[in-house]
Amino acid sequence: MKKSIFILLICSVFLQKSTFSQNNTTSDVHKMQWFSDAKLGIFIHWGIYAVNPTSESWAFHNKHISHVDYMKQIKGFTAKNYKPDYWASLIKASGARYAVITSKHHDGVALWDTKMNDLSIPKLAPAKRDVLTPFVKALRDRNIKVGLYYSLIDWSYPDYPGFLKDSSRYDAAEDPIRWGKFLKFCHGQIKELLSLYNPDLMWFDGDWEHSAGEWRADYIRSLILKSNPNTIINGRLQGYGDYDTPEQNFPITRPALPYWELCMTTNDSWGYAADEDTNFKTPYEIISIFADAISLGGNLLLDIGPKEDGTIPAAQEYILQELGNWTNKHSEAIFGTIGGMSLGHFYGPSTLSKDSTTLYLFIPAHANGDITIKGLNSEIKNVSVVGSNTNLDWKVVGKISWSKVPGLVYIHVPENVNDKYMTVLKVELKSPLSLYVGKGGL
Ligand code: GLC
User: Considering 188, 323, 361, 391, which has the largest number of Cβ atoms within 10 A of its Cβ?
Assistant: First the structure.
């Protein structure tokens, strides 16, 4: 790794330390490496909400259905066509390097055989078995990092204060003994997950209902790090996580933290929604969002919602396959790269090799003509199309011999080199990337 990039990384980690997690150490640079190289993760929302077209947990919380009727769905969760090896191979084929699965959503139903209460698939659903363990194994067999989503909120647990959107059972601050009972349960489940699965990533959700002090977020973080100092924690632990977690809404500028991940649905629902939600994003839309995320130095965590029987909906299967074809063809431009140039230099996403001598340009629409790079000080050695090895012509325009401002680079992209979804150009430089960022002029 180039010294300057390394120093930049170290500095940004110190910046993160002061603005985000109070407990990070410099070893985080090492610990976060796989995550920042991974770029693509697949999120899985699987729970009893897949039985009827209800939203995950929110359906009863927002009173679209009673809690009693919502919970009846557990009797319809069969997992009868569940093939964890097939799930994991589909994830692998998509190009994703990690997966995050809902071990328990806000409705409190655990996918594993928790000993902390009886509300679990193995105990109450016709599936009658722990469906989490075989999936974790299938991921590990394929060298895919394991992330466990765990909802801190548990609206079904009798000692959890929140329940319906406008009613609370009690106030945690006024009844610390009862809140303490809940915490014992919640921390106990986290300990179970750590000791059973040794996750590479703990992905918390629902931290917004209580403060760091109430959750005892520092204790949760220490439990995790004591169990495995390399486990990464997402950004929903009231300031005690390792990276930022924007949801659905795409950042326009680079988030302040060095590590971040956009979690996003393939349609408009996290869990399976049958025919109620067929608003699927196209492969092109997903690929272009993904390219934007990595261009800004982040990851995409793309969600799928399997049916109660374990079948992955065809529309989501298709998206993962198409995404996989594209990521495989363009893998050198994606994995192991770092975020690219700001839009002032190129009007599209870009990434950079770690030694900063190769730029990858993601062309937003089918090109048939010239694309431009502005402010490129470094000289170009070669330009080619990723995945096809076709070399392209380029030309430097408007370079004034006595000025420090570089000329404009025009690269000619003929129609016949376009990828079905998004074409990527490889621009090899004679020296590490150097950019002019001034105002032009003399
Ligand atoms: C939200 C929702 C939840 C969903 C999650 C995914 O926080 O509460 O339903 O699981 O986002 O990021």
Answer: 361
**What is the residue range of 352's domain?**
338-429
Model confidence over 1-52: pLDDT tens digits? 333 433 333 333 333 333 345 445 556 789 999 999 999 999 999 999 999 9
Q: Could you tell me the two tokens for 27?
A: 């070893």
- Overall average pLDDT of the 290-305 stretch: 97
Confirm whether 217 is domain-assigned.
yes
Distance between Cα 13 and ligand 1 center (Å): 27
- Ligand 1: distance of its center to the CA of 344 in Å? 34
The whole model's pTM is what?
0.93
Specify the ligand 1 atom closest to the Cα of 236: 7
Handedness of CA 11, 16, 22, 27 (dihedral sign): negative
Identify which of 270, 299, 303 to mutate to test ligand 1's pocket (most ligand atoms within 8 A of the CB).
Answer: 270
Assess whether 182 and 243 both reside in one domain.
Answer: yes
pLDDT digits (tens, 9 = 90+) for 121-149: 999 999 999 999 999 999 999 999 999 99
Q: How far is the CA of 4 from the centre of ligand 1 (A)?
A: 38
Q: Is 428 left (phi over 0), alpha (psi -120 to 50) or beta?
A: beta
Sole residue written with tokens 């069969």: 78
Residues with CB under 6 A from ligand 1: 45, 56, 58, 205, 247, 263, 270
Rounded to 5 degrees, φ, ψ at 272 are -65, 135
d(CA 304, CA 116): 28
- Rounded to the nearest whole angstrom, what is the distance from the C-alpha of residue 245 to the centroid of ligand 1? 11
Whether residue 395 is predicted with pLDDT greater than 70 in this model: the reply is yes
Residues 345 and 303 in one domain: no
Q: Which residue has a Cα nearest atom 9 of ligand 1?
A: 56
**Domain stop point among 329, 346, 369:** 329
355 shares a domain with 216: no
The answer to whether residue 373 sits within a structural domain is yes
Please tell me whether residues 281 and 357 are part of one structural domain. Answer: no
Which of 329, 360, 382 represents a domain boundary (last residue)?
329
Give me ligand 1 centre to Cα 205, in Å.
7
Residue 97 has pLDDT above 90, yes or no: yes
Residues paired with 151 in a beta bridge:
205
